[in-house]
Specification:
The structure is a single chain. The chain is mainly beta. The chain is built from one helix and ten strands, in the order E-E-E-E-E-H-E-E-E-E-E. The protein has one helix at 69-72; strands spanning 6-11, 17-21, 25-29, 41-42, 60-65, 74-82, 93-101, 116-123, 133-135, 141-143. The radius of gyration is 15 Å and the shape is globular.
C-alpha cells in the first residue's frame, strides 16, 4: 500500500528501510511497517516518460547504500532519464547512475539538487532496461544495464 510499482528494498542500519518506486519516489518504511507520507527523494521530474498502466521498464530502477553508509551516508540510485542530446536520434532514454548523501537529521530527506551523476548509458528502447545495482564483497559498485 502506498507505492505503485516497488522495484527495490534496502534495509537501513536502524531497522527502517528505503523502498524505490518505479514512478520516481524513494519512500521510508518505518520499523512498524508504515510507509512515511513524504518521500525521502522524488525524481519524477528527472525521469524519462513512463507508460502508466502499460508495460514499461523505464523509471526509477534501484537503490543501494554504500558499504560504509553508517559513516558516509552515501546512497546510489539508477533511473532512466530523457534521451541525451548526444545520443542517437532514434534512441529512447538514458540510464543514469547517481549518488546522493542522506543527512543524519530527521526527517530523512535526500536533496535532489545534491545529485552527483556517476555514469550515463544511452538506451535504444523503452524495454530491456537494467539498472540493478549492488555492492560486491570487494566494495565495488556493480550495475546492470539491460
Amino acid at each position: 500500500e502506498g507505492v505503485v510499482s516497488p522495484v527495490s528494498y534496502t534495509a537501513l542500519p536502524d531497522g527502517r528501510a528505503l523502498v524505490a518506486d518505479q514512478i520516481g519516489f524513494v519512500r521510508l518504511l518505518e520499523r512498524g511497517g508504515a510507509l512515511a507520507e513524504t518521500p525521502v527523494l522524488s525524481l519524477t521530474n528527472r525521469l524519462s516518460a513512463i507508460n502508466r498502466g502499460a508495460f514499461d521498464e523505464r523509471g526509477l530502477q534501484c537503490l543501494a547504500l554504500h558499504p560504509r553508509f553508517a559513516e558516509n551516508r552515501r546512497v546510489f540510485v539508477t533511473y532512466t532519464a530523457p534521451r541525451r542530446a548526444t545520443a542517437p536520434a532514434e534512441y529512447d532514454c538514458t540510464l543514469r547512475l547517481s549518488e546522493f548523501t542522506l543527512p543524519a537529521a530527521e526527517p530523512l530527506r535526500l536533496d535532489a539538487a545534491s545529485e552527483r551523476i556517476v555514469l550515463e548509458v544511452d538506451k535504444p528502447y523503452f524495454n530491456h532496461n537494467g539498472g540493478r545495482i549492488a555492492f560486491g564483497p570487494d566494495g565495488y559498485l556493480y550495475v546492470s544495464v539491460g
